[in-house]
Amino acid sequence: MSITTDGPLTLRERKKRQTMESVLAVAREMLSEKEYDSITTKELAARAGIGEATLFRYVLNKKNLFLLIYEEFFNDVLQACLDEDAKDTTEHGTAEYYIGRITTMYTSLAGLYKRDPDSGYVYVRDSFSPEDFGQRGLEQGDRWHDLVENVIRRGQDAGVLRPSPPRLIAQNVHAIYVHEVLATHARRHDPKTIDARLARRLTALLEPLNLTAA
């Protein structure tokens, strides 16, 4: 994430942008080295070459900073799935093909969660908050709904998926992902097993749509 402005940047604005980008780069680096809970803002500020007080001029708190990082990662996965879907010209795929596309999308999302379960949990949980971040999280959810709905409609147009309301199905698919993330922490499941658990539930939801199943 970078600070964007309209028109040329002043020297002060360029310095602020550079500092913020440096903080984000250090946060990403530290997140690849250790777990979220073991990272301190004091250490992060020192590695970024600024004081801890200066750090809090740029971010509200540690959680806010790492939610910005996770939001970037989440958007990267979403955009990759959107790009892949935009390139798909299949018009007469099988039911397994369309169901598999949806499952693959959410396997990618589960993979992101497994990289950093703590941040992933906080990200999903706080996506329903009334803060600006929460609003962006809901907008991301809507984009996932649009993506899944598009795949389902194509399967229905091909005559291989049952004509159930595609938007409702898409919302239920995403709700399963959200529930699995929250339940993993509440029930102390192993985060590494989320993709298997997610796949089982998605199959149970989507397989009844298969009009060609024996």
Topology:
Blueprint: H1 11-33, H2 41-48, H3 52-58, H4 62-87, H5 95-115, H6 117-126, H7 132-157, H8 166-186, H9 194-206
Helix pairs in contact: 1-2, 4-5, 4-6, 4-7, 5-6, 5-7, 5-9, 6-8, 7-8, 8-9
How many distinct folded domains?
A: 2
**What would you say the CATH architecture of the largest domain is?**
Orthogonal Bundle
By oligomeric state, this entry counts as: single chain
What level of helicity do the residues show? over 70%
Low-confidence parts: 1-5
Give the biggest beta sheet. none
The tally of strands reads 0
> What percentage of the residues does DSSP assign to strands (E)?
under 5%
Word description of this protein:
The protein contains nine helices and no strands. With 214 residues, the protein is mostly helical. It folds into two domains: 11-58, Orthogonal Bundle (Arc Repressor Mutant, subunit A); 62-209, Tetracycline Repressor, domain 2, CATH 1.10.357. The radius of gyration is 20 Å and the shape is elongated.
